[in-house]
Amino acid sequence: MLTRNCLSLLLWVLFDGGLLTPLQPQPQQTLATEPRENVIHLPGRRSHFQRVKRGWVWNQFFVLEEYMGSEPQYVGKLHSDLDKGEGTVKYTLSGDGAGTVFTIDETTGDIHAIRSLDREEKPFYTLRAQAVDIETRKPLEPESEFIIKVQDINDNEPKFLDGPYIASVPEMSPVGAYVLQVKATDADDPTYGNSARVVYSILQGQPYFSIDPKTGVIRTALPNMDREVKEQYQVLIQAKDMGGQLGGLAGTTIVNITLTDVNDNPPRFPKSIFHLKVPESSPIGSAIGRIRAVDPDFGQNAEIEYSIVPGDGGNLFDIVTDENTQEGVLKLKKPLDFETKKAYTFKVEASNLHLDHRFHSAGPFKDTATVKISVLDVGEPPVFSKPLYTMEVYEDTPVGTIIGAVTAQDLDVGSSAIRYFIDWKSDGDSYFTIDATEGTISTSELLDRESTAQYNFSIIARKVSNPLLTSRVNILINVLDVNEFPPEISVPYETAVCENAKPGQIIQIVSAADRDLSPAGQQFSFKLSPEAAIRPNFTVRDFRNNTAGIETRRNGYSRRQQEFYFLPVVIEDSSYPVQSSTNTMTIRVCRCDSDGTILSCNVEAIFLPVGLSTGALIAILLCIVILLAIVVLYVALRRQKKKDTLMTSKEDIRDNVIHYDDEGGGEEDTQAFDIGALRNPKVIEDNKIRRDIKPDSLCLPRQRPPVEDNADIRDFINQRLQENDMDPTAPPYDSLATYAYEGNGSVADSLSSIESLTMEADQDYTYLTDWGPHFKVLADMFGEEESYKTDKVT
């Protein structure tokens, strides 16, 4: 690098008096502040003078990375044609790293790198240079831009950015089978030298795998590598720069390669014969044993399917595969019986489900083994001759009649006696009994089919030698019917006939029901009773299918003449003895339209105006009720208004009850009420029209003793009551009349305190006791007040 820089400096000295002129000048490499004329001698021949533009001249600059010298590293030199060497020009440098990475001699234009550079960190620097007049500080030429490139050295080793790697390849693959491609990255400059030229090699993993030195592709190097022998391989890969030459830097990575399984091994039974022992009492569908074939493959390649080879006893068993353990599970398809057959032998075949055609030549991918099953004897319960017993008995059969029998036997070697019992849980009412030894069933009560038509209960058979061994069977007993009930009409019918009905019309279809159990083919017959068959209004038509129709015999019916007709119908059954019953049907006459639709069946509707519907009648009644309510409300309001008028009349100067909260002014207050009206009885006689006030309920401060009967007061009240009763102007309601007139001729003069000048507290009422029996009540009242005040003060 120093040699190149020195060469650049030499060329700068030789050409054009120290001016380095590029062979192919470019616009960005030439700066001219002030164009000036100069004579330049071109290479070869100078035939005349030519005007040119002076400017910056330099070659492309390079700087070596990772420079470790003690002195700053020389980069290059800048010179302007305006610099005559007199020291009047100053060179300045700006841009990437100016002052921190690169410095320039302001007088000579020499550029130096003052610190070590790393190309991988920054490959080039863009700077700007300018020549400035020292005295005026003005630029002599426009600023020009140039680039300093960092020259690479081999200072970075290759790196596997994606390592370590994981790969897989199928087992038994041929040589050269693709496994994986690895890639190493070198941070050095790939355009300069061999610093970034990488070569791959295997340090560990041979002879099983190989790698392409240029592409990094890993391939198999040995044929028929078996996963069952070795499954995992670890390969160490090296990447070295400088084309693998001595002195190059290297990096390594690990590749973990797994051989994936293929179905190259058939299943094999570890032994040729399997022995199993099965109790004869094993239920159907239960697992009786397991066998297993071994397949060294893995996953779905190791899935095994088991099957029974047709042969001796194979139809009694079945085999399925346990998906978790890949074992063959033998199951029982039919029941075993030690007394019938004690041993079974058959073959089982194991084969792979997923075959690989590449390995068919290795032989069949299946294996066969023999299974021998020994049946173990187990004590068995008794066995009934039938799974279900069905019996029949007529109702009302005498008690003790045998209706059937059950039979059970012991099939074990050395059979035991059997005892029979009725399960009391299924025959709680004990209608039947069973002979414990013979197994015969008889009735224990009278049976009624209409009460219970069928009985279902269980019978238990128990071995005498082993009472714990029991079995049960269901008994179904049907109670046969004895014809004892006559047939009747099945449902109550509401039959109606139109007034405009024609003869021969069917107005009702009736059916019958019989409480007896009707046997197949039984028929019911319908007819009129003999007394109704004479000139009948209706007749019965038997349809011969257990139904009949009610048929009209007249041309029209009238509700006014007869609203209801009663038709007796005789129904007979076909059983023996024949049972019959007479059923009376009620037929109602109704008004219908021309299509036969019933409009009304009420008798009241006969007297209603023609064409007036029920809705219209309801509307009329509703209007009448509303009018009556309005009238009643109006009368009540008028009475209330009259009452309010009497209450608010100001013309009535008679007794008024005035409520106010202000304290009165005593006798001098004459504005609130005319007291003279209370003193002059003539005012009362002159004004007959009066106003009564409903008294308010007064809350008395204390309870006074009842007033004793006084004849004078009673006579006075009766007189006033009679006057009010005879008064035509008196209101019709009860009222309270207050009378302030005390009467004439009182020996005590007036008792009113209105004209009294003394205070109530100064009054002494003890003298009232001296006035006689007429004032006893008054004396008691005031005496009680005096005692109350005295107690309060105390």
Characterise the protein shown here.
The chain is mainly β and 794 residues long. Among the domains are: 60-151, Immunoglobulin-like, CATH 2.60.40; 159-260, Immunoglobulin-like (Sandwich), CATH 2.60.40; 273-344 and 362-376, Sandwich (Immunoglobulin-like); 383-480, Sandwich (Immunoglobulin-like), CATH 2.60.40.60; 488-600, Cadherins (Immunoglobulin-like). Helices cover 12% and strands 30% of the residues. The chain contains 6 helices and 39 strands. The strands form 11 sheets. Strands 32, 34, 37, 38 and 39 form a 5-stranded mixed beta sheet that branches. The chain has a 4-stranded mixed beta sheet with strand order 1-7-6-3, with no helix packed on it. A 4-stranded mixed beta sheet has the order 8-14-13-10, with no helix packed on it. It is flat and about 160 Å long. It starts with a helix and ends with a helix. 19% of the residues are buried.
